[in-house]
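Hi all, long-time lurker, first post. I run a small reading group and we've been trying to get comfortable going from sequence to structure in the token notation. Rather than ask abstract questions, I figured I'd post a concrete chain and ask someone more experienced to write out its structure so we can walk through it together at our next meeting. Sequence below, copied exactly:
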Amino acid sequence: MATLILLSLTLLCVSRGQAQNPPQGQTTCDAPEHRQFDFWIGTWDVFDTQGRKVGENTIRSTMRGCVIHESWNGGGVLGESFNIFDRTRGMWQQTWVDSNGTLLLLAGRIEAGAMILKGETLGREGSTVAHRIRWSVVDGDTDQVRQVWEQSRDDGETWNTVFYGLYRRR
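-- Answer (accepted) --
Happy to help. Here is the structure in token form:
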């Protein structure tokens, strides 16, 4: 049910982002910006900094190439994200949900060859927690992607890594 609700919300966001007509000769998601996160598409084994396998992730292009859908399984957590380039804002949007009840709404763009998405949540005590997640190809090898998720509880003065994943294509 939660996946259906999330999918409905994602479709609503997609349809709103399509309110503008694409340039002549292009279908809705043909622009190069819509391909910026394609390096993440694939079936992956994910390892931590010690080389231990921590999960499996399947990333696929869906909805005529307009959405990148992630399916995570690792550490006892199931999770999914929907990622889309929102041309009305000129940035990427990710909605992440998982079996722990986590919801992350992130937005960002390609910076120095890496996808960097940022967002905020409320901590247990009501304080703001900033999130910054970076995905990048490792040393030009498209069969390896590094993901680093960091959090800050002091307005970005200091950052702590909460997840490090080295993706290796199966």
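A couple of things your group might point at:
The longest helix spans residues 2-17.
The longest strand covers residues 141-152.
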